[in-house]
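pasting for the record
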Amino acid sequence: MNDLKTKSIGLVLSGGGVRGMAHIGLIQALNEFGITASVVGGSSVGALVGALYANGNSVLDMMAFFKETPLFKYNFLTIVKPGFIDTDRYFDVFKAFFPDDTFEALHKKLHVTATNLEKGDLEYFSEGELIRPLLASAALPPVFSPVEMNGGLYADGGIMNNFPLEPLMGKADYIIGSNVSVVSELNKKHLKNSLQLAGRVTGLMIYAINRKKLEACDLLMEFKELEHIGVLDRKGIEKAYLIGYENTSRRLEELLKKPQL
């Protein structure tokens, strides 16, 4: 642990909707142990948490952002864009937290993912305009409409890379990964309808695609208890945070007690 505090730390934050509040719990635990990342990679909700962390916001500010930002608001509904919710309507909400609206204004280096729907390409954003890439990275189809940038339509970065380790390679001595897109054993009672089945299949596909990158982390935190929190279930915000905090705290305590070789 003492050695860890002297190394440059990279932090990778996966997508996973409301389950991403576990990322904030992890950050709180890292703070308490005096561990700070210098570079962050995030996808979807991981991009949002990563941006708040890189911006220097406190854990209380991060939680307030997600508690106070409405997922579904009547006047955010749209019938003229592909999606139920007009993602662009969140711009002013984000502007209150990121008034300078640039990656360069952040205190830590941040890399976020977004999917170019027209080209079928994954893109990384780390400089220039900040808010629109963040909105795009978290625009989960078909709930949220794609975001127009650079003449193209962009959506959730987790579609093509839910665990963006790549931009951090060679930029940190030690990589900490936080994966909230968990896969654990399910009882058949949790696979009774089409939505549950689709969610399970999607989760398995995402996990399989990212497995090697997860294993490449120096310290990987996965939170199996999160699987029973819905991706868009705002009632799970506090629970997901506590799961992330308690599990990470225990893991760091174990590392602290581990004999040095």
